[in-house]
């Protein structure tokens, strides 16, 4: 019962952020760009629940639109990385031999690069923007999925159903989509959940450095604007920082729940 309550809370929290991102124009009490210089750096009040920044913009409205940026980047990076990583990992595991060795050596080479540093370099070269951030984070994001899928495929190849499918003349594409995809859905879903949390945190880091989107406020950019007013207006860093923390920890704990459920299912 305790685990179910925690899981329900996690789903409510994630659902709250998702709904805020989808209906941001309807839920935001003000435009994120609406300024009121006379009330700059004002703290939380009845009219501005989370306060205002140095230009008098409503922090709550900016954070609602910031949830849209974070979830868009997180889901896009995971989707792209998952599609590329699953395809390459399945190809490596199914064919094996020289193909497997070639692909794995490339993956080992790519894993030698620090992902966040490469993303910072690419975002700096390509310029700020959501598309460039997604590209920079996806460039190495698929590597973990490829290694996971390849390892799982090597395990599945030793099972009777795989050999039976090959003996009956099933093609590789049929085996992959008919048999491997359903059996690998659990581990890949767990990895994707952790991947969303990592992508959200990476996007916040890039936006904090000024390499994220400049047209729409994000959690990282709000933090960057408020860091200079940490003593006089701590609400500019506390609230977006809490939002990133809650969103990332929710996806991480959700991933733990899925991993535990998967282990229980395997034991059955």
Topology:
Blueprint: H1 2-22, H2 24-27, H3 59-95, H4 97-111, H5 115-126, H6 130-156, H7 160-167, H8 172-208, H9 219-226, H10 235-267
What are the defining features of this structure?
MetI-like fold; 75% helix; 10 helices; 268 residues; mainly alpha
Describe the model:
This protein is mostly helical. The protein has one domain (72-267): MetI-like fold. It has helices at residues 2-22, 24-27, 59-95, 97-111, 115-126, 130-156, 160-167, 172-208, 219-226, 235-267.
Count of separate DSSP helical elements? 10
The CATH homologous superfamily is termed MetI-like
Q: State mean pLDDT (0 to 100 scale).
A: 89
Question: What is the multimeric organization of the chains shown?
Answer: single chain
**Strand-and-helix sequence, N→C?**
HHHHHHHHHH
Low-confidence segments, ≥5 residues, pLDDT <50? none
DSSP strand content = under 5%
Q: Please give the number of β-strands.
A: 0
Rg to the nearest angstrom? 22 Å
CATH top level assignment: Mainly Alpha
CATH hierarchy: architecture: Orthogonal Bundle
The largest sheet is: none
* DSSP helix fraction: over 70%
CATH topology: MetI-like fold
Structural class determined from secondary elements? mainly alpha
Shape: elongated
Q: Roughly how many Å apart are the termini?
A: 20 Å
Short précis:
This protein has 268 residues and is mainly α. Helices cover 75% and strands 0% of the residues. Helix 3 (59-95) packs antiparallel against helix 4 (97-111).
């Amino acid at each position: 019962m305790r685990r179910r309550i925690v899981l329900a809370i996690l789903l409510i929290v994630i659902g709250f952020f998702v709904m805020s991102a989808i209906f941001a124009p309807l839920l935001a009490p003000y435009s994120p760009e609406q300024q009121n210089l006379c009330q700059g750096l004002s703290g939380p009040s009845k009219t501005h629940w989370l306060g205002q920044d140095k230009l008098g913009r409503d922090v709550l409205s900016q954070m609602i639109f910031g949830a849209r940026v974070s979830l868009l980047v997180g889901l896009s990076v995971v989707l792209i990385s998952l599609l590329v990583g699953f395809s390459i990992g399945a190809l490596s595991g199914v064919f094996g031999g020289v193909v497997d060795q070639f692909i794995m050596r490339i993956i080992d080479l790519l894993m030698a690069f620090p992902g966040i540093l490469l993303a910072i370099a690419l975002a700096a070269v390509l310029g700020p923007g959501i598309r460039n951030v997604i590209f920079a984070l996806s460039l190495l994001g698929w590597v973990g999925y490829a290694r996971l899928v390849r390892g799982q495929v090597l395990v599945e190849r030793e099972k009777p159903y795989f050999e039976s499918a090959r003996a009956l003349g099933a093609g590789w594409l049929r085996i992959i989509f008919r048999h491997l995809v359903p059996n690998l859905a659990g581990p890949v879903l767990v990895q994707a959940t952790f991947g969303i949390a990592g992508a959200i945190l990476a996007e916040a880091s890039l936006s904090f450095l000024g390499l994220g989107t400049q047209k729409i406020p994000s959690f990282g950019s709000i933090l960057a604007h408020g860091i200079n007013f940490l003593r006089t207006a701590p609400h500019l860093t506390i609230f977006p920082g809490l939002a990133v923390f809650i969103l990332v920890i929710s996806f991480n704990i959700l991933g733990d729940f899925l991993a535990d459920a998967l282990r229980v299912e395997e034991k059955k």
